[in-house]
Amino acid sequence: MTNTMNNLSQVFTEQNHDIQSEYQGLFNELMDYKNTQEKSNWARGFTEIINDYLNKNSIDISQFPTHTQYSRNYIGKEKSSGWQAMISRWEPGAISTIHGHPDFIFYYVIEGEFKMPFFEKTQTSADTVKHTETKVITPSDTVWSIGSPGCFDNMIHQVKATKPSLALHIFSDDGLKGEIFKCE
Ligand SMILES: [Fe+2]
Description:
The protein has one domain (15-183): Jelly Rolls, CATH 2.60.120. It is 15% helix and 38% strand. It is an alpha+beta fold. A six-stranded mixed sheet has the order 1-2-3-11-5-8. The protein has a six-stranded mixed sheet with strand order 9-4-12-7-6-10, with no helix packed on it. The structure holds fe (ii) ion.
């Protein structure tokens, strides 16, 4: 199969913003955990670290830039491994493409509400998927998935914000390499 897959870098342009350095401590704590714990513990540990952070600090949605759909605000990138994390701010009604992620992906809802339809690949073509289920996630809910090493089609899904919303995302590689799909 030739690699004609589209990826998220083709749909994101001005939504990307510089690293917000005030979250460097939180990012470092997440990466320290990842670097010293088994993969099977990561999601639980990340959840505890973020819960603990939010018990001591508030994250104000107004500090993040608005965009017609959503803004992506990196909070850190680990150069040696490629891991990165960001906080995204979503406008009500904002909707993402159907996309996949690198082999570890973790979402934590900070504020608002998201509808998240999930999809699976079909036999029709490499970039065609069909809907399987939809989750509704609200503050402190998490969604995460472990895929095959090196993949960018992990946890194929779409994100729809129903309210002004914030989410924290942790990726094991460049999130913009996530593949884009269409629903059959
Ligand atoms: Fe995603």
